[in-house]
Amino acid sequence: MPTHSVLTSEALQCSACALSHVCVPSCVSPDDITRLDGLVKRRLRVSRGSHLFAQGEIADAIYSIRFGSFKTHLKNASERAHITGFHLPSGVLGLDGQASGTHVSEAIALEDSEVCVIDLHEFDAFTGSLPGVRGWLRRIMSQEIRRACQLMFILGNLRSDQRLAGFLVRYSNGLAALGYAPNAFVLRMTREEIGNHLGLTLETVSRVFTQLADAGLLTVQQRDVVILDRPALTRLAGPDFGCNAY
Amino acid sequence: MPTHSVLTSEALQCSACALSHVCVPSCVSPDDITRLDGLVKRRLRVSRGSHLFAQGEIADAIYSIRFGSFKTHLKNASERAHITGFHLPSGVLGLDGQASGTHVSEAIALEDSEVCVIDLHEFDAFTGSLPGVRGWLRRIMSQEIRRACQLMFILGNLRSDQRLAGFLVRYSNGLAALGYAPNAFVLRMTREEIGNHLGLTLETVSRVFTQLADAGLLTVQQRDVVILDRPALTRLAGPDFGCNAY
DNA sequence: CGGGTTATTGAAGGCTATCAACCAAAGTGG
DNA sequence: CCACTTTGGTTGATAGCCTTCAATAACCCG
Asked: CA-CA to A150 of 20 to 30 Å: which in A62, A165, A169, B141?
């Protein structure tokens, strides 16, 4: 399971990044964006199925997804793990390792992906000259807390169909925020991974998919999903907490 | 539901605080502790049942609990809320409001309590002269993410008895960390609040309490709990993720 | 002491997990 | 190129856990 490192020099500027409107640069004024160049010293390619980081590793950096997608899961000493989230481009990985200094979760690429490495010592140097950057990390971490709290609510209170409907709506919203088509997409994860994440078995996920399809809310073939009745799906998912989480 | 404000001047020094070993001061060298004085400009008294902050309010500060206890819950537009956590002294409240600038949750005192108000603008000034303080916030927020992820696992995977056992063990650990007796304590919350937090109904919580009592793991009378067989309770709760959360 | 909140206990029903069989797709190797 | 294997997905029957509904009891506060 190799992870390929891609360095360095050229084309690493945040100022030239296509995701600048949703990533770190969004927190500094347009005039200052070029001053961010140098924050990212390297990028990593992570091939499908490989891990970006594993639990126990030193957590001295955070990672912003450039393309591809990831799952993060908590591994529970020799028992089954729990997938705490799926992550799309512009998402930030590795925030949960700051408490202990080592990663407590593991991030695995669901497809061939690339991330920007933000070294935290480097990062701290930038917070001095660019105060907005400090607020960015605080905001990102706060958002992660909200995302987790929303999932707590979902896992503790909603039925299986509501969980899956909500998952699809949030996933779709995440794609839309990146400029992709929100109503027709390919799921990058298996039924088992979805079920694990939502606190359901893979059989239940499968059943609910056909149930939603029978109700005319969507069509599904393997991992290809087309949302037909978005309002109904959103209504089924129940009130959102305003988190762009999935 | 009034909240009483207690200012100011005297006796607000972090350097003289009994909780200095578990609060902000723990992140700076002993020599620098006096330099923290001035970080906390005021404290708030919050009477039982009152809210420290409500959702929608501006989030320009975070709060460290001095004594008492709180619950934080997410309110889901006109539907039932979900309690995202219970908090003991040295716990920090208000971290989830940093993403939007307004609080998305509500913190309510379970008993007459007092918190230190850490103004965030003030806080940023201290991060310049005391680098360790910056790491403190990062660590605290990261820990909150881990706590939430652990709860996601619990809500998605464990049975009712495991959930309650785990809750009691974590609560007990929290008390122990503060120097209180870990095996005999008073719960500050109702069965309904416990159930809400754990994704169970109040009836189930009640039933599991008597079930655990029948099994000889503890005794319970209303809110008075005495843990009799801590190893068994811990075993039942399943493997922990190393978070001091409850 | 009385009324309202909180907690306990019971019976019935629903939702989801479990077990199991079958199917489809993708990858492997001769 | 095609058996063979593996992985992922669907569907069905049964069982178990928890919720819901309901009644009763204990406790607390004014």
From this structure: A62
Scanning the structure block, which residue is given the tokens 């009994």?
B18
- Report if residue A191 sits inside a domain: yes
Mutate to test the interface with A, among B155, B200, B235 (most CBs of A within 10 A): B155
Residue B245 belongs to some domain of the structure:
no
Q: Which of A136, A152, A168 delimits the end of a domain?
A: A152
If one compares A21 and A90, the residue with the highest pLDDT of the two is A90
**Average pLDDT of the residues of chain B:** 88
Taking CB atoms and an 8 Å cutoff, what residues of chain B touch A198?
156
Instruction: Determine the residue type at A121.
Output: H
| A103 close to A61: Cβ distance less than 8 angstroms | no
User: From the list B97, B199, B239, which residue is nearest A156 (CB)?
Assistant: B199
Q: Do B117 and B24 share a domain, yes or no?
A: yes
Query: Is B131 near chain A, with CB under 8 Å?
Result: yes
Structural domain range at position B110: 3-152
Strand C proximal residues, A:124-163, Cβ < 7 Å: 159-161
- What local confidence, expressed as pLDDT, does residue B110 receive? 95
Alpha carbons within 13 angstroms on the beta-carbon side of residue A73 total: 19
Cα A125 from Cα A207, distance rounded (Å): 51
The pTM of this model reads: 0.92
